[in-house]
Write a structure and sequence with these properties.
It contains 4 helices and 4 strands; from the N terminus they run E-E-H-H-E-H-H-E. By secondary structure, the protein is an alpha+beta fold. The protein has 2 domains: about 1-35, no CATH class; about 45-165. The protein has a two-stranded antiparallel ribbon with strand order 1-2. The chain has a two-stranded antiparallel ribbon with strand order 3-4. About 25% of the residues are buried.
Length: about 170
């Protein structure tokens, strides 16, 4: 079971009306969300930032595929990946603020934060470029912006997606 959700596992034999007596019935009762404590030393924002970064790096792949094949659906994939990455960037920023307020993060690592903010702004600009029609939506500005964002995110991701230094109180 997932270690973050305490459970009361119940395993019992299936009712007698079943023709097969070897069938087991498993019932899992999750405790209420309030009873599952949030560990104070574990920030929430890295998961959202990492997932958003994956989407934004994937834009480079779909842009390159579009530039090579000229199948318009790849440009549509690119804008959807950009939109999803930007939504997750906003949610990552909101959870970073929540992590700071709940003291899961002691202080911000400004180099990573600035790099991720620049990547988000370039991705927003890239979304505007991708809103153009046909070939000019990707080539040449869109692919250059996608490559810049991907390079920046891979470089930052090498050191992890945690923008804040975790607090020492566990």
């Amino acid at each position: 079971m997932n270690r973050h959700f305490p459970t009361n596992d119940v395993i019992e034999r299936a009712p007698r009306n079943s023709s097969d007596s070897s069938v087991l019935r498993v019932g899992i009762v999750l405790q209420s969300f309030q009873e599952a404590p949030i560990r104070p030393g574990r920030p929430l924002h890295p998961r959202l930032i990492g997932l958003g970064a994956v989407l934004l790096v994937a834009v480079l792949v779909t842009d390159a595929t579009y530039a090579n094949t000229l199948l318009f659906q790849w440009e549509n994939f690119s804008i959807w990946l950009l939109t999803g990455g930007l939504v997750l960037a906003v949610l990552g920023g909101v959870t970073l603020v929540l992590d700071i307020l709940s003291r899961r993060v002691a202080h911000i690592e400004w180099v990573k934060f600035t790099g991720l903010a620049v990547a988000a702004m370039l991705s927003l600009l890239n979304a505007f470029v991708h809103s153009r029609d046909a070939y000019t939506a990707v080539v040449p500005q869109g692919i250059v912006l996608s490559a810049s964002v991907a390079t920046l995110l891979v470089f930052i991701g090498w050191w992890g997606w945690n923008v804040g230094t975790p607090s020492s109180s566990h």
